[in-house]
Amino acid sequence: MPDQLIFGMEVVLNGLMAGVLYALVALGFVLIYKASGIFNYAQGVMALFAAMTLVGMMEGRVPFSHLINAIFGTEIHHFGWHLPGLAAVLLTMVVMVALAWVVNQLIFRHLVNQEPIILFMATIGLAYFLEGFGDMMWGSDIKKLDVGLPQGINLMIDETTFNIFGYGFFIDNLDLVATGVAALLVIALVIFAQYSKQGRAMRAVADDHQAALSVGISLNFIWVMVWSLAGFVALVAGIMWGTKSGVQFSLSLIALKALPVLMLGGFTSIPGAIVGGLIIGVGEKLFEFTVGPLVGGATENWFAYVLALIFLVFRPQGLFGEKIIERV
Amino acid sequence: MFYREAGDFKTSYEQDSQTFPIKFDRYRYYAVLVAAFAVVPFVINDYWVNAVFLPFLIYSIAAIGLNILVGYCGQVSLGTGGFMAVGAYASYKLMTAFPEVSIFFHIILAGGVTSIVCVLFGLPSLRIKGFYLAVATLAAQFFLVWLFNRVGWFYNYSASGQITAPERSVFGVAITGAANPPWSAYLFCLVFTVAAAIIARNLTRGMAGRKWMAIRDMDIAAEIIGVNPLKAKLTAFAVSGFFVGISGALFFAVYLGAVEVGEAFGINKSFLVLFMVIIGGLGSIFGSFAGAAFLVLLPVLLKNTLVGGLGWPTDLAAHLEFIIVGALIIIFLIAEPHGLAQLWRVAKEKLRLWPFPH
User: Fold this and answer.
1) Among the listed residues B125, B50, B335, B81, the one whose alpha carbon sits nearest the alpha carbon of residue A309
2) Residues of A in contact with B334 (CB under 8 A)
């Protein structure tokens, strides 16, 4: 086989893995959008916030230590304990649920029946708030996150492909884990939405707020639940991305990458988020591999957006989205 | 008492259709103009120009541009930073290619170039709406910044990848470069800001503005009563792009002097201008000014009180700024979706009835 083709295959494989991670973030968007019609721009910052909280918990950092030190002139930074990964994850989940409750009580209860674009802008405000809040709480340094996930080159794939092609593929163990987790998450979510009582209620709310209210579904509870679920997905995405590239501000930009993923897949479809993520992941890696060197590289910054833009012109509802019908 | 239509008789159509029909408003407007042109230039120093006045004037133009698109025509755009970059790079290329032409025309031409680019990226708005469009404009943001970063022709193959404004003057007074007096840059920007405000105000009062608002309120209904959505949307993109381009050109040439595209015109700039429009008031020219003033003054104020007064570290003040801005956006969207401009309007209504409200 020619070298270029083998390299290409490796690029495609890595693209698939990257796509899975995009899809993970995109899932959180779809969940909230389906249940409340809110397009949650803050999803990426939520992932960042979750990852920061997780690191902070594990290392026993004192929340708001910089603020406290600045005001009172003290020098406190750490409680001096280290939590095991699992306990910290659980605690972080509690924080995310609390966050969901606060967000719902303080913001979105007051914005019921507003236009979607107003809600969208409110989530941008939320994103800004959380960004500043997270930094203030845990400090803005780049944090290392290690909850014990395997990392580094997968030797088995390396050896197998070396035996077949005479060239070992480089696949990160972490990407494999992420793929597994994403698959589990999707299956769990689908089962939850289709078969559990709360899942049905969630779908009912998504379909029609008023009708759901009239059959006795608590809108408040469902929304808090959905935001908590999104917080959970954000936490998972935060763990994956945080382990991969450190917990830092650029994490929240990944959420922006999830937007074109959603537009490709359609805002209302969970499978759409997965397929969209894979298409974007493979597409941008392949584009960078083939066209990138000709135009100066770093095309990954914009390829996804432009692809989505062109795609939307021809199919505004995305690949799997429901057809948009407008009436006067 | 003094804020009344009563007794202010209009005797011609010109008077009837003037911008400020109430006498008090009109005089206030003249007073502000006189103060801005004849008083401020004599009293300001370097710090005030660079920290407050220049950013305020320049962001005002950008906010007016974005307000036309978002507030009047209802097409949410997150690509403002990218379009400002187009203005900046267009003015840079023009300034270096035609050094003998006045910088005044370069800036206007830069606005024209941006206008064209903006229309190109506005084309998908004919098919997609709402936040689909908002996300689509992100493509403009990222693509344009990447383009200016990677293609050497745009920054004249300079080693640092930065663009630096060459020294230019108008009527013999230096405007750009290091040696200019503070008032010259201020006046130069002020001329553009006032012109932009007057043009925008009259456009939005006229046929074009009414078409935009019809499209914003319900595009299908607007189409049925005979508004051409293609024309209305694309003119909104064009006008908006023109103003945003001018502000980008001024931002680069007059305010910063040297620019690195990812830093100066990143996604945060897009959000900053959008926040100005939201806080100031969607669909209001005055609101654009109010929002720009608010978000320019807030960091200055925070920095002076927290870092200067209380001795906090700078990064902490920056985080607090994020928190405050984010919270303000949410509070405004919940409590007063029409922004500062609506507070102003309510105050004026109260004033009309004062002191006998019943």
Assistant:
1) B125
2) 107, 110-111, 122
Residue with tokens 């390396």: A158
* Closest to B62 (Cα-Cα) out of B82, B48, B47, B46: B82
Q: Which residue from A minimizes the CA distance to B274?
A: A121
Return all residues near A175 (Cβ < 8 A) that are at least 6 apart. Answer: A14, A17, A18, A20, A21
Cβ of B267 and A299 within 8 Å? no
Q: Is the pLDDT of residue B42 over 80?
A: yes
Contact B113, B245 (CB under 8 A): yes
By mean pLDDT, which of A148-152, A221-225, A268-272, B353-357 is the weakest? A148-152
CA distances from A194 to A35, A36, A198, B175 (A): 13, 17, 9, 66
Quick check: B237 pLDDT over 90? yes
Is A223 part of a structural domain of the chain?
A: yes
Residue B194 has pLDDT above 90, yes or no: yes
Radius of gyration from C-alpha coordinates of chain B: 21
Distance CA B188, CA B204 (A): 25
The structure tokens listed for B1 are 């008492």
Which contiguous run of DSSP H or E holds residue A311? helix A303-314
Phi, psi of B169 (to 5 degrees): -135, 160
Question: Rounded to an integer, what distance in angstroms lies between the CA atom of residue B139 and that of residue A260?
Answer: 9
Nearest CA in chain A to B141: A302
Q: Do A130 and B142 touch (CB under 8 A)?
A: no
Long-range contacts of B145-151 (CB under 8 A, 24+ apart): B145/A301, B145/B81, B145/B82, B145/B85, B145/B261, B145/B262, B145/B265, B145/B266, B146/A298, B146/A299, B146/A301, B146/A302, B148/B85, B148/B89, B148/B261, B149/A298, B149/B261, B149/B262, B150/A295, B150/A296, B150/A297, B150/A298, B151/A296
Please tell me the distance from the alpha carbon of residue A247 to that of residue A51, in angstroms, as a whole number.
Answer: 7
Rounded to the nearest angstrom, the gap between the alpha carbon of residue A327 and the centroid of all alpha carbons in its chain is 33
The answer to whether residue A327 scores a pLDDT higher than 70 is: no
Asked if residue A320 is part of any domain, the answer here is: no
Q: Is A135 on the interface with B (CB under 8 A)?
A: yes
Here the ipTM equals: 0.81
Among candidate residues B19, B331, B341, the one with its CA nearest the CA of residue B197: B19
Number of domains chain A contains: 1
Q: How far apart are CA A72 and CA A85, in angstroms?
A: 32
Element at A60 (helix H, strand E)? none
pTM (predicted TM-score): 0.87
What distance in Å separates the CA atoms of residue B82 and residue A177, rounded to the nearest whole number? 37
Which string of DSSP letters, residue by residue, matches B48-63?
A: HIIIIIHHHHHHHHHH
Q: In this predicted model, what pLDDT tens digit does every residue of B44-57 receive, in sequence order?
A: 888 888 888 999 99
- Residue B281 gets the label, from left (phi > 0), alpha (psi -120 to 50) or beta, of left
Number of H helices, E strands in chain A: 14, 0
Q: Is the dihedral of CA A67, A72, A73, A78 positive or negative?
A: negative
For residue B278, give the nearest of A121, A127, A299 by CB distance. Answer: A121
Asked if omega into B355 is within 30° of 0 (cis), the reply is: yes
Which domain does A72 fall in, by range? 3-314
